[in-house]
Design brief:
Layout: H1 12-22, E1 40-42, E2 62-64, E3 135-138, E4 146-148, E5 160-162, E6 167-179, E7 182-190, E8 193-198, E9 202-205, E10 226-231, E11 247-250, E12 256-258, E13 263-269, E14 291-296, E15 301-308, E16 310-311, E17 318-319, E18 324-327, E19 338-345, E20 354-355, E21 373-375
Parallel strand pairs: 1-2
Antiparallel strand pairs: 3-6, 3-9, 4-5, 6-7, 7-8, 10-11, 10-21, 11-19, 12-18, 13-14, 13-17, 14-15, 15-19, 16-18, 19-20
């Protein structure tokens, strides 16, 4: 036996000394190290034992080097026969080399913690005071309307007036001067008019429905049509006393007249026809011969359309805003073709005391004046 021959288990330091003393070919004599199960080895595993240093040990061997049989040293890992794969390759700079498997993560780590059934629910957001009051309607002013003030008090001069029954958008609800036991004021906007109105005469209403306008009333003729006001409110000629709040619009015979607001026909007269002495107009003697339609509205008021030369609806008919109810004419006490329209208190008759009426499609306070040309949005659908 050669002096470099060894058998059985040898300590690690003795194996190293033998390898150093014997050099290459230490196992050329054919000696096997198959019995070195469990040895801790340095060198090449998976070789054939005929050249280059290496120990032909595979079972349970913990090896450092190249298990793929190349003889190279380092942290490279290959498939060396039955040798179990080593750890992933890692460069000395700490970066991953080769094909590095993704890190193993806890599948539950990213999940939020389950809700605590005993935890208090977050407080609800504060209620929006405008949710139940996006608009107001002027009510119970006795026909004089509601003043719009620069602040929530009666100290400042009015900026304008909202007619009874008119509607305005609410911008804010505030507390101000107490008026008849009510300190609530509404900051409102209607057309170009903006300011504060006392809550005593304001009724909260819901948002506008599709196609509904911000105001109750629209001009009594078709969408896009323009006419001149020949007589406004409180004129010395005939709009005074009971009819002080009436409007006359100059227009040709047969112009379709349209309801300013939805309602129900409560009075109608069409007895003055061609050949009647008052059909083409006349003096005070014709005062009771005008054809007319009266429409009652949900707010308790009614509107009168007079001097018609044709009536297209009957008592009891349900009327929509913008509906064609008759044609303009010059019947009764009239000096020429025109449309006479007024808003009235409901008194059970066709001719009652007039009250103010503003139109949503008239700029400013909605109340046109004599000589003003106005353009209707009635029936425009917006």
């Amino acid at each position: 036996m050669s002096s470099c021959t060894h058998s059985g288990f040898q300590p690690l330091f003795l194996l190293a000394a033998l390898a150093s003393a014997c050099g290459e070919g230490a196992l050329e004599s054919g000696s096997s190290a198959d019995d070195a199960d469990g040895a801790f080895l340095f060198g090449e595993t998976g070789g054939d034992g005929t050249g280059g240093s290496g120990l032909d040990l595979e079972q349970d061997a913990l090896t450092f080097g190249d298990p793929g049989g190349t003889g190279a040293t380092g942290h490279d890992t290959g498939d060396g026969g039955d040798t179990p794969p080593g750890p992933p390759e890692t460069d000395f700079d700490g970066g991953a080399g080769g094909s590095t498997p993704p890190p193993v993560t806890d599948p539950d780590a990213a999940l939020p913690p389950p809700p605590d059934p005993d935890a208090a629910a977050p407080p609800p957001p504060p209620p929006d005071p405008l949710a139940d009051c996006p608009r107001i309607r002027v009510v119970n002013t006795g026909g004089i309307g509601l003043n719009v003030r620069p602040d929530p008090s009666t100290n400042g001069a009015p900026l304008g007036n909202l007619p009874d029954g008119s509607v305005a958008n609410v911008l804010a609800i505030v507390q101000g001067q107490d008026v008849d036991g009510n300190a609530t004021w509404y900051e409102v906007e209607r057309g170009g008019l903006r300011g504060f109105v006392a809550g005593t005469w304001a009724q909260c209403i819901g948002p506008a429905m599709p196609g509904e306008r911000d105001d109750v009333f629209l001009l009594p003729f078709g969408c896009g049509e323009s006419f001149v006001v020949t007589q406004g409110n409180n004129s010395p000629f005939s709009h005074n006393g009971r009819g002080a709040w009436a409007y006359d619009f100059s227009m040709g015979l047969g112009t379709p007249m349209r309801s300013v607001k939805p309602g129900t026909v409560v009075h109608a007269y069409a007895g003055t026809q061609p050949g009647h002495p008052c059909y083409d107009g006349g003096g005070p003697e014709c005062i009771n011969d005008a054809n007319y339609v009266v429409v009652a509205h949900p707010d308790g008021s009614q509107t009168l359309y007079a001097h018609l030369n044709a009536v297209h609806v009957g008592v009891g008919a349900e009327i929509s805003q913008g509906q064609h109810i008759g044609d303009s004419g010059s019947t009764g006490w009239s000096t020429g073709p025109h449309a006479h329209v007024e808003r009235q208190e409901a008194c059970g008759r066709a001719f009652c005391n007039s009250i103010p009426m503003g139109f949503a499609d008239v700029p400013g306070d909605g109340m046109p004046v004599e000589g003003q040309t106005v353009t209707s949005e009635n029936g425009c659908g917006g």
